[in-house]
Amino acid sequence: MNDLCAEIGYKSINHYGEQLCGDHVDIVEPDENSTVIVLSDGLGSGVKASILSTLTSKIISTMMSEGLPIEECVSTIAATLPVCSVRGVAYSTFTIMHLKNNETAEIFQYDNPQVIIIRDEVNYDYPKTEMNIGGKKIFKSIIPLRENDIFVAMSDGCPHAGIGTAYNFGWKREDIISFIEALAPAGYTAKNLSTILVDECNKLYDGKPGDDATACFVRIRKREPMNMLFGPPSNRDDCDRMMSLFFSKEGKHIICGGTTSSIAAKYLRKPIQASLCFEDSDVPPIARIEGVDLVTEGVITVNKVLEYARDYLGENKHYEHWNFKKDGASQISRLLFEEATDINFYVGRAVNPAHQNPDLPINFNIKMNLVEELSKCLRQMGKRIKVSYF
Known about the structure:
- This protein has about 400 residues and is of the alpha+beta class.
- It has helices at about 45-65, 70-80, 175-185, 190-205, 240-250, 260-270, 300-315, 320-325, 330-340, 365-380, and strands at about 5-15, 25-30, 35-40, 90-100, 105-110, 115-120, 120-125, 130-135, 135-145, 150-155, 215-220, 225-230, 250-255, 275, 285-290, 295, 340-345, 385-390.
- The chain has a six-stranded antiparallel beta sheet with strand order 2-3-4-5-9-8. A five-stranded antiparallel beta sheet has the order 1-11-10-6-7. Strands 16-13-12-17-18 form a five-stranded parallel beta sheet, sandwiched between helices.
- α1 (about 45-65) runs antiparallel to α2.
- It is elongated.
- The model has no long low-confidence stretch (mean pLDDT about 90).
């Protein structure tokens, strides 16, 4: 078993005037080292397309994760999808990426734009085998995974972008490849890569997409542990135990909270260097302790990180904000969203007397909820999370 993992991110834009997207992405993990990703594009747009693509991706991802062969998946889809009364067909294209044991990728493609693979920061022309299943031409590829490989699956709304406006015949495949190759060395997360690509499609459509457009990126990378300490322990006698466990863990170390950082500084026998510089008006300044990667304020900063995490999982509108700013919340966001794959939370249950002011909207439960909600968001990003309470 290697120490590789897959970082997955996707984004969609709807056909102009439609409330529902006709594309659907489904991700299933049969076990912690295998993942099935299905991108499906329903016929047309709107409600019908949304139903077709959702059914297709759900059925395929569930069957594939249970180990059933692609032939059974396709025949089940053909028998299950409702038939369009206008066109007389039940039609939904799909791309399947099955990552096995973080060692190989099995790719099955039916009528979607062909998957782009970026290897060593340039386009990789991978082998394809043609299969005929129930009269449908499906291409199969088996590719050994390498660190920094980038897989890009998309619906036909991406290469169709700009038809009749920016381009005569849409955004050509080779131009999309060049666009992604230019982004590859920057180290963007899969989610940010999908956001940048789909935002570019939206610009080419002049903000009025003529088709649903979806891009799903899979970035192969090494596991990266991260440790975050938030709040002092409920029992003061547990301080040294909490600190020794926290600092003994491999990876970077983040400390959130004034009291918590004071305990850490005492444990490390290092001074706290406080900053009075506000990088962002609504996020308190950071501090520094030798031997700690990042020291921030507690509840307000973590609440801001949670806000960014929720947005990151949705429309990802704020990625340009936290990607470049130097305030505590932005720095934590970069560490947790972009760098970390395995995150250990060390959470103290002590009640902060400052939070007992009835005029403040902060209490013990809100602090615990912050950790639970942030953990939930990070798991949805594909991170492995472990929370220890003291």
